[in-house]
User: Fold this.
Amino acid sequence: MEQTALEHKISLRGVDSLQLLGQGDSHLQEIAKHFQTRIVVRGSEIILRGDENEIKSLDRIFTELILMLNRNGELRPADVETVIAVVKRGEAPAPTAHQNHNERPVIVYTKHAAIKPKSTGQMEFYQATQKNDIVFAIGPAGTGKTYLAVAIAVAHLRDRQMDRIVLTRPAVEAGESLGFLPGDFREKVDPYLRPLYDALNDMIPAEKLKRYVETQIIEIVPLAYMRGRTLNNAFVILDEAQNTTPAQMKMFLTRLGINSKALITGDITQVDLPATTASGLVQIREILVGIEGINFVYLDDRDVVRHKLVRDIIKAYDQHQR
Assistant:
């Protein structure tokens, strides 16, 4: 009995397709020589149709090549030949084609891994960002809120869906004025914005990130510096939003211009504001209920993607506070 051919799709969103496939599709042709599976490139997808085992091997090959391309900034014919040889020997430690790629889509490829939703809550967060212009992700530390938000923003920039990314945080410890701290502007705000830089450094090659920051394609600024601006064609992220006042939250949300999206992340159990000051993130949940185009996603300890003990720590604190 003839075996039914399987079909599997590999997303090229955020990938330099010309580099991956080679000049005149030379890399693609080299790969195709070694397999019977039909390989078709259509838009931002590679479509594989053929034998299950071959599809697994091809999925490994393309995954390894994409990671190598993001790590090195280029692919040489020798790189392609090496990856093919290693995979055909069964030595590649990459994911197989049947690990729910369609359910857990790759958002961006970094130097070391493919970033995709790792939990049900993260998947809900990702899907909400595809359908809504303003999304709130609320949950405890370790649930990947900031990292996933930055990855989604980078994917929009790479796919040219947005012209720029603006990332902001309230610098609560510095009283938002920052004036009394030593050093220039960058030295004053860096400690508060470092987590955003760290995420970007994982996802964008150093030279390209430096160029993006210098040309303000990517801006990383304290929340206080957002006043009076209108952000068009921008992907805007407000991190640590539990430390905004209601007035700051309103100010931020009303910065959104034409063809822009906003992601707001925070943990309402870790508010650093004075006890007499209300959290804008806590309040906004009641104000924006039921507005089309705005979505609230709640993450919990089941979505923790850090060290396994982080989940136990969060549970222990929850139980202690009851």
Summary: The CA atoms of residues 12 and 42 lie 10 Å apart. The radius of gyration is 22 Å.
